[in-house]
Amino acid sequence: MNLILQGLSADRPAVDRIARIAGAKHVVALSPLAFRCEGVSADPALKAEVGQAAFEAKLDATFIEPGRKLSDFGLVAMDMDSTLITIECIDEIADMQGLKPQVAEITEAAMRGEIEFQESLKRRVSLLKGLDASALQRVYDERLKLSPGAENMLRAVQAAGLKTLLVSGGFTFFTDRMKQRLALDYTHSNLLEVADGKLTGKVVGGIVDADEKKRTVERVCAELGISTRQAIVMGDGANDLKMMGISGLSVAFRAKPVVRTQADVALNFVGLDGILNLFD
């Protein structure tokens, strides 16, 4: 296996120490901040030891088979809130009502897998009842920011010919704008009901939960004529695990522990473009 070590600062002594723990035969500098340690074992105990040492050194460590290429894949599917973008949109909308702490608490519990997602979304959206719909544009204009490395990552995968899917338990107001802004191919999310210029506290139609996210990845892959194993799927919360589980490469980005432990790749420190260093 190859072991990719990367971080926001270049600490070559730490890289060399972790490479020795892994028993690497060679260490290749991919950039000043990323290194490929070649010829390492994928023994579970060793992987755990390397992962702990890397985390303490503020390095992301990924074990991956040599020779994997971006062109092996046909789709990158991404969660939106706290993955492609830095915020949870519903929490910021709630802040316009003075209810951010209450909504954020439910959001966190749902992302940890402690509350079923559909129920959590209904509870959170109900708290927004009566809010002027213009608050959505304020959140987009004033608070929404792309995650570090998002644009670099998207440029690279699009240049390599991969299609892009944004599938979110958030809202169409934001995914529609992300689609246009970033030239994404597909989006799927929830529609907030608006009446007389105000939010009603309800979602129109079915809710995009973990099962629907998985079905969406399957549906888009079928449309593209590829296997779900040819999809890279990125997420941060428990409701992303089902779609990540059918992918060929699952990426946990700044994710909850329950997600990090089940993903192929965990990016805790570098940006989304950290996935680019994994491929030949």
Automatic annotation (TrEMBL):
Domain of life, source organism: Bacteria
CDD domains documented for this protein: HAD_PSP (cd07500)
Gene3D superfamilies per the UniProt record, alphabetical: HAD superfamily/HAD-like
Name of a matching Pfam family: Hydrolase
Similarity-based family: Belongs to the HAD-like hydrolase superfamily. SerB family.
Protein name: Phosphoserine phosphatase
Catalytic reaction annotation: O-phospho-D-serine + H2O = D-serine + phosphate; O-phospho-L-serine + H2O = L-serine + phosphate
Presence of keyword Isomerase: no
Keyword Metal-binding: yes
UniProt EC number: 3.1.3.3
Organism: Noviherbaspirillum humi
InterPro entries from the UniProt entry: DUF4072, HAD-like_SerB, HAD-like_sf, HAD_sf, PSP
Keywords, alphabetical: Amino-acid biosynthesis, Hydrolase, Magnesium, Metal-binding, Serine biosynthesis
Phylogenetic classification of the source organism: Bacteria, Pseudomonadati, Pseudomonadota, Betaproteobacteria, Burkholderiales
Leader peptide range in chain numbering: none
